[in-house]
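[09:14] KT: can someone run the structure on this one? pasting the chain below
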Amino acid sequence: MFLMPMFFTWPLIIVVGLFVRYFFDFSFFGYWFWVLAVLVLAVILIILHKLYIWKNSALVITSQRLVKNEQRGFFSKTVTELLYKDVLEVSYDKNGISASLYDYGDLKIRTASENEIVFDKIADPDETVELINEVRQGGERLSPQN
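[09:31] RB: done, structure tokens below
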């Protein structure tokens, strides 16, 4: 749900262009069609870029480590790997009404070297913290029937 603002804010550029065109009767010096075409193309490319970055980023929780694959651009990717033996503390923050309504937040992990690594906008952060702590303690995750 935190992607929804992107689908509403970027198309506002097109709405502003239409507003300027018809409210102020400004035809962009006869190039109105080209201005509109460039605005629509730019908005589509920006939205596709953001979706690509979101789709190719992931937090992987294994039995031995945490791996964060963060796609930063088309040709830029950051991979962060944490072994459970290096993890001292796991916590999360939910800031804002949308984070509370749609149940996402920032996962914070403090390591043995006193660094804090933040995983942004993780779905169900409370369950993720619980899962990480269970795996760290060597226990198995309880099924919903128990």
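[09:33] KT: thanks! The beta strands are 58-61, 65-73, 76-83, 87-93, 104-111, 116-123.
[09:34] RB: yep, looked fine to me
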